[in-house]
């Protein structure tokens, strides 16, 4: 789905996009906070409209969708806190800084989504045993369309900014909002079912939405916990290796270690250099490798390059 032109122009505003190097942390954090603020406002408005319609209609499917949208809006709070802490300087106790808080915020988001799925599923099952008539079908249908539009706009917003700043938590939250939009649109199917004389369509759709929520938890959970365990995309490792290898004077790239700290990527690279190089020359070459890595690798903020004489590197590799 493409956003209208005025919304596309809006996405280009706000804090600048992601930069490379050490100055990227504050800039990307501010952009993440900016995205969270506006997506929270959009989802709050969407949820408020749906709450009003549910109060008068009594639709279980709409209730499940509303609970999900409220939970989605609430996920902005732990992410906002995480982005704020990311800007803090490292300390003697937390020598790597506070970037890992963003990953912990992702875990909190998963728990919020999980809780919303359980509540929505419980309410849907209750309606099977205690059915109630759904009123104002036209309003429920309108609320489902509003929910879809609001969530899809937020999804595009969060995913775009999340990819710009390299935030797995914000990207996961964006895909969560996209699935919310599909769930909102499915409420319309419940309305059609009731209109055709099948009242159980409403709790059935509510139950389906609950299963969709659980699927989101599983998919997003894999990404979040991969980062918590210092997992990275193998393609990024290959990118780092290729970038270091093309620096003149580098005879080989041995060990490459990467880790995400929130939306910051840290690298440790061992390179082999000529045996004839003195300490000063090896150090200068290491600085060239760092500069090349920052130029080629997106989201990289810190790189530690260790140089070994080619003969020693070959012995260690063996």
Automatic annotation (TrEMBL):
**Can you give the residue ranges of the Cation efflux protein transmembrane domain?**
38-229
Instruction: Give UniProt keywords alphabetically.
Output: Membrane, Transmembrane, Transmembrane helix, Transport
* UniProt KW Phosphoprotein keyword: no
Q: How does it sit in the membrane?
A: Multi-pass membrane protein
Q: Which residues form the Cation efflux protein cytoplasmic domain?
A: 233-308
Compartments, as annotated in UniProt: Membrane
This protein's GO cellular component annotations are:
membrane
Which segments cross the bilayer? 38-56, 62-83, 104-125, 137-159, 180-198
The record's section on Pfam families has: Cation_efflux, ZT_dimer
Q: Name one GO molecular function term.
A: monoatomic cation transmembrane transporter activity
In the record, the note on similarity to other proteins reads:
Belongs to the cation diffusion facilitator (CDF) transporter (TC 2.A.4) family.
- Write down what this protein is called: Cation diffusion facilitator family transporter
* Native source organism of the sequence: Hymenobacter cyanobacteriorum
């Amino acid at each position: 789905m493409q956003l209208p032109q005025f919304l596309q122009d809006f996405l280009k505003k706000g804090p600048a996009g992601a930069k490379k190097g050490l100055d990227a942390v504050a800039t990307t954090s501010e952009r993440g906070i900016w995205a969270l603020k506006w997506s929270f406002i959009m989802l709050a408005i969407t949820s408020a409209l749906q709450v009003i319609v549910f109060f008068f209609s009594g639709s279980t499917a709409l209730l499940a969708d509303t609970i999900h949208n409220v939970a989605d809006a609430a996920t902005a709070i732990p992410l906002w806190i995480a982005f704020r802490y990311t800007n803090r300087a490292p300390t003697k106790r937390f020598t790597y800084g506070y970037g890992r808080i963003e990953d912990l915020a992702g875990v909190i988001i998963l728990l919020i989504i999980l809780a919303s799925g359980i509540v929505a599923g419980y309410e849907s099952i209750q309606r099977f045993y205690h059915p109630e008539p759904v009123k104002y079908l036209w309003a429920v249908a309108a609320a489902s369309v509003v929910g879809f539009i609001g969530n899809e706009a937020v999804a595009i917003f969060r995913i775009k900014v999340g990819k710009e700043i390299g935030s797995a938590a914000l990207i996961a939250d964006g895909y969560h909002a996209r699935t919310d939009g599909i769930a909102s649109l499915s409420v319309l199917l419940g309305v059609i079912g009731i209109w055709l004389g099948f009242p159980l369509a409403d709790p059935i759709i509510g139950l389906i939405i609950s299963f969709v929520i659980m699927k989101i938890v599983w998919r997003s959970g894999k990404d979040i916990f991969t980062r918590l365990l210092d997992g990275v995309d193998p393609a990024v490792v290959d990118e780092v290796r290729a970038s270091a290898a093309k620096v003149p004077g580098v005879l080989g790239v041995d060990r490459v270690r990467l880790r995400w700290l929130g939306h910051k990527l840290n690298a440790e690279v061992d390179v082999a250099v000529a045996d004839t190089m003195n300490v000063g020359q090896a150090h200068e070459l290491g600085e060239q490798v760092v500069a090349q890595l920052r130029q080629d690798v997106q989201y990289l903020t810190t790189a530690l390059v260790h140089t070994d004489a080619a003969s020693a590197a070959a012995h260690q590799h063996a």
